[in-house]
Write a structure and sequence with these properties.
Layout lengths: L3 H39 L4 H19 L1 H18 L2 H7 L4 H42 L4 E3 L1 E8 L2 E8 L4 E11 L2 E14 L4 E13 L2 E12 L9 E3 L8 H14 L4 H28 L6 H28 L5 H24 L1
Antiparallel strand pairs: 1-8, 2-3, 3-4, 4-5, 5-6, 6-7
C-alpha cells in the first residue's frame, strides 16, 4: 500500500518530470517556428493547419524523445533537494528502509514507462503521418521516391523483378516468375507495368510469356494485359522514415510482409525494439538517479545535475553506437537496442546496492 510519504514523492517526481518536459517542448517549438517561419509565410499556410496539423502533432514526438533524459534529471533534481533539506535522512530515521523508499520512485517510473510506451507505439506514429501530410500539402517537400532494382517474393513461389518503379505508379522492365516445387513453370517479361487506380488493378504492357511443362515450352505475346497481383504501388515507394509513421500492429505486419518478400527488415526491427527498450530505461535511470542523489556530497545539487546529464547523454550516445553496429550487420536489432539497458542496468544494480548500505 502507498502512504502519504509515497504520494508526496510521486507528486514531486511526476510534477518535476512533466514541468521539465513542458519547458523543453516550449523551447523546441520556438526554435522550430523560427526555422520554418519563412516556409509558412511564403506558402501561405493557414494558421489553423500550422497549429492543429503540425504543432499539435509535434508535441508527442518531443515529449517521448526527451522522456528518458528528463526522467533522470527530474529524479536527480528533486531527490538532491530532498537530501539537502535532510528529508531523506528523516524518512530513513523513521524506520523506512532504502528498499521501501524506492517504492514510490518505481511507481513514478512505471507511470512514465507506460506513458512512453503508449506514445511511442500508438500516438506518435499517426502524429508523424499527419506531419508528413502537412509538409507534402503545404510545403511541398515530398519524402517519397521510387525504388530501383526490386526483387520481391509477393506470394510463396511467385517472384517479381523491376528495374525501377516511379512515383507515378509505373514499373519498368517488369518480370514475374512462378515456381512449383522449385521448378520454373512460367515467366512473364514486359516493358512496363502500370497501376490503374480507377479499377485497382495492374496493366502489363508489351508482354512476353513463356510457360514450361516438362520439356514443352509455350510462348504467348501481347500488347496489353490486365491482372491482379498481391502487391500495391505503395510497396515500391521509398518513404523516408516510414517506420516512424507505423503503429505497433502495422510495424509487425510490415516486418512479416518484408520477410515474405525477402527484403531486409533491419530498419523496422530496430524501430520495434527501440520502442520496447526505451520505456524500460525509465526504471534503470530512476534507480541510478536515486542512488546518486540520495546522499549529500560536496558540490551540491549542481554536481548531481551535471553527473546526471553526463550519464544521460552517455546512455543516448551508447544507444546510437549500437544502432550503427546493427545497420552494418554486426549485431542483431534486439541486441543493439537492449545492450545499453543491460549495461546500465548492471550499473544501476551496483549503485543501488552501494547506496542501500
Amino acid at each position: 500500500m502507498l502512504h502519504k510519504i509515497d504520494f508526496y514523492i510521486i507528486k514531486k517526481f511526476l510534477g518535476t518530470f512533466f514541468y521539465a518536459i513542458a519547458l523543453i517542448i516550449s523551447i523546441s517549438i520556438v526554435f522550430d517556428v523560427s526555422e520554418n517561419i519563412d516556409d509558412f509565410m511564403s506558402k501561405d499556410v493557414p494558421m489553423k493547419a500550422i497549429v492543429f496539423d503540425y504543432y499539435l502533432n509535434f508535441i508527442p514526438y518531443f515529449a517521448n524523445l526527451f522522456s528518458g533524459l528528463f526522467t533522470f534529471i527530474a529524479v536527480i533534481y528533486f531527490t538532491s533537494k530532498l537530501a539537502y533539506d535532510t528529508e531523506i535522512i528523516a524518512i530513513l530515521c523513521s524506520g523506512v528502509s532504502f528498499n521501501r523508499l524506492m517504492r514510490p520512485y518505481m511507481v513514478g517510473a512505471g507511470v512514465i514507462a507506460i506513458f512512453s510506451y503508449l506514445l511511442g507505439n500508438y500516438v506518435i506514429p499517426p502524429a508523424n503521418l499527419k506531419k508528413v501530410e502537412f509538409r507534402n500539402q503545404y510545403i511541398g517537400n515530398s519524402n517519397e521516391k521510387g525504388e530501383t532494382n526490386i526483387h520481391r517474393q509477393i506470394e510463396p513461389g511467385l517472384f517479381v523483378y523491376l528495374e525501377s518503379f516511379s512515383t507515378e505508379d509505373v514499373g519498368y522492365k517488369f518480370t514475374i516468375e512462378k515456381f512449383v516445387e522449385h521448378q520454373l513453370v512460367s515467366k512473364l517479361t514486359s516493358e512496363y507495368i502500370k497501376w490503374d487506380r480507377e479499377h485497382n488493378k495492374w496493366v502489363i504492357h508489351n508482354y512476353f510469356i513463356r510457360n514450361f511443362d516438362g520439356n514443352k515450352e509455350t510462348i504467348i505475346q501481347g500488347v496489353q494485359k490486365d491482372t491482379v497481383l498481391n502487391m500495391k504501388p505503395e510497396d515500391y515507394h521509398v518513404v523516408f522514415n516510414i517506420v516512424e509513421t507505423m503503429t505497433l500492429p502495422k510495424l509487425n505486419a510490415a516486418i512479416d510482409n518484408l520477410k515474405l518478400s525477402g527484403v531486409s527488415t533491419i530498419e523496422y526491427e530496430i524501430e520495434k525494439h527501440k520502442r520496447r527498450a526505451g520505456p524500460f530505461s525509465a526504471f534503470i535511470l530512476t534507480i541510478i538517479g536515486v542512488s546518486l542523489a540520495s546522499r549529500k556530497i560536496k558540490g551540491g545539487i549542481g554536481f548531481h545535475l551535471g553527473l546526471g546529464l553526463l550519464m544521460s547523454f552517455s546512455y543516448i550516445l551508447f544507444m546510437q553506437v549500437t544502432t550503427v553496429f546493427t545497420t552494418s550487420g554486426t549485431l542483431a536489432p534486439w541486441m543493439a537496442m537492449w545492450i545499453p539497458n543491460i549495461i546500465y542496468g548492471a550499473l544501476a544494480f551496483y549503485l543501488y546496492r552501494r547506496a542501500s548500505r
